[in-house]
Amino acid sequence: MHNTENQIVDSSFSAIINAPIEQVDIPKWCFTLPEKEYQLCSPAHIAAGFTTAPDGTRMSINVETIGGSLMVQHYSETLGEKDHLILDSDSDVFTPNGRLTIHVTWELSVKEIDAQRCEFTNRVRSYATDEMMSFLDRQGIPLEVFRAQRQPMSIAHNQGETPLFAASIERAALRNASSRAA
Fold it and tell me: pTM to 2 decimals?
């Protein structure tokens, strides 16, 4: 578990999915998400793919720009249930002053509202790694200053992508339902 003292962001937004919860499968959506679909979920999204870790754990690789910094995220599945997915990544961040890593926990979940709708929640938490703390120390940047600069950009990014992720998950759920009915 990560030290909350080193937490940079804890951001959570929700949106409605107009599909029955039984048709929603967040891990299936995440680990088969076409790159074009990922790009449609945010203007900051550059590329996406999926692979496996050496131990066979499913991984989602996402490339995006947040606050002017290019990020390469290596998300490993730590919990994979149809209605709840938790991914962890020691993400590479390319800043004007060099490359560093930041730990990101990405949590996606749905809960039923009624027979035809559910609520999607997109939660992102990030933490400074030891490497990042050393990087900030060498630059003379207090963590509080970095946090204050990073939070608004990360929160705005999450707020923008959440309804678009929900719409993408909804399309996948409705496709799954129609392919099962066929």
Answer: 0.94
